[in-house]
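Quick illustration, no need to memorize.
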Amino acid sequence: LILRHENGLCWKCKRLTAFFIQQKTDGPLVIQALSHCSLIYNCQKIKFSGRYLLLLLEVLSRKVINMAVVVKMAGTSPELYSCIAPLVMNPEIIKYNHNYPFKTSESFVWFVAFSDEDNHVLGFFPVEIRKKSAIINNYYVEEDAKGVFLSLLEAVTNEFLTTGKELEAVVQKPHESYFRTQGFEIVRAWSLYLKMKKTYEEE
């Protein structure tokens, strides 16, 4: 991806594109940030390659602005700690996770969903990278919002689509339908959780 920003981008999109460039995030996530900037703040002078221009126009036509902006962050990055720390130490959010602590390390990448209207964190998916698999576990989504779930799931799915790793998730039972929407199927069930695995349609 070739992307540079000039005067005219809002402060939030400057920050987001910096994250994307630093993390070498792929096209779909960048497009979400750029569509946010174009529609909400009417920013100008966004320059990037022709291929992504076509994708951006497609996204704009689908009004992706109703979805959350998702940012990929390294598991031990200062940016992650600054925006996640107030949440993972919040007793109500720990309760949401059935009182299990949240954890991270260099073997994790996090997908963090931000509100389109401000810098408010709407949810996050930590993904543990193992030798043959990537596992979503101990996540949080504010008010179990469907749009945030789908934005996060789409971002994670796009990230690991071509890596050759199996994409798995430890899912709270009330959230099963969101994961099924993205092609996950149950492989094991416990009292509070489901182990689900992403399946891909054969071409």
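The two ends are 26 Å apart (CA to CA).
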